[in-house]
Amino acid sequence: MKKRIAVLLSGRGSNFEALADSIAAGRLPDTEIVLVVSNREGAPGIEKARQRGIPARVIPSKGLEREAYDRLVVAALDEVNPDLVCLAGFMRLLSPYFVERFRGRILNIHPSLLPAFPGLEAQRQALEHGVKFAGCTVHFVDENLDAGPIVLQAVVPIRDDDTPDTLSARILDEEHRIYPEAARIVLEGHYRIEGRRVILESGEPGKA
């Protein structure tokens, strides 16, 4: 039986496409994306999902309290029974209700080497802080912002002439590479969690 992924997004959905491409190429085997949900009307990622023949729904979040909205999304997810929920540019902090419902089955990707620079505009934060390396992190989602146990990270050196846009583009390439790999690790169960540490069965550190 195929493993089932649901994707939540708010915008262009490039990480959704990376997951879908990896499934099509066999890099994420025996897996299917069963639903894509957006909280924003007109999100390009929804149209991309429909073009691929993947079920897609818009559940608008405007004007709703966090948990009230999350209950609507959870109801939609319960209809498709996902093994894994992947946040792909989903611009909302999940409520404790949502996290508890899918605890240990929610992944997010963030464009920094967490715990550095959580939240919005991580690339700008990195440049303003003057760090020499940035990157991206795939982590489990808990009730806090960009704070769950880390599955994989990728490092991107910062150039002296970088802008937030140029740095973002190079980080995005790495996001597209490691997100499907992290999803595969979690879906296949090739890990264990000790405290905050995600230990991969291969013995390799969480760096791809």
Task: Describe the protein in words.
The protein is α/β, with parallel strands linked by helices. It contains six helices and nine strands; from the N terminus they run E-H-E-H-E-H-E-H-E-H-E-E-H-E-E. It has helices at residues 14-25, 44-51, 66-80, 96-101, 122-129, 164-188, and strands at residues 3-9, 31-38, 56-58, 84-87, 106-110, 133-140, 150-157, 191-194, 197-200. The longest helix has 25 residues, at 164-188.
Question: Largest beta sheet, briefly?
Answer: 7 strands, mixed
Instruction: Tell me which CATH architecture of the largest domain applies here.
Output: 3-Layer(aba) Sandwich
The average pLDDT score comes to: 95
Q: Tell me the CATH topology of the largest domain.
A: Rossmann fold
- Total separate domains: 2
Major beta sheet, strand line-up: 3-2-1-4-5-6-7
Structural class call reads: alpha/beta
For this structure, what is the CATH homologous superfamily of the largest domain? Answer: Formyl transferase, N-terminal domain
How much of the polypeptide forms β-strand, as a percent range? 15-25%
Uncertain residue segments: none
Order of helices and strands: EHEHEHEHEHEEHEE
Radius of gyration: 16 Å
Distance between the termini: 28 Å
Number of helical segments with 4 or more residues: 6
Tell me the quaternary state. single chain
Shape: globular
Under CATH at level 1, the class of the largest domain stands as: Alpha Beta
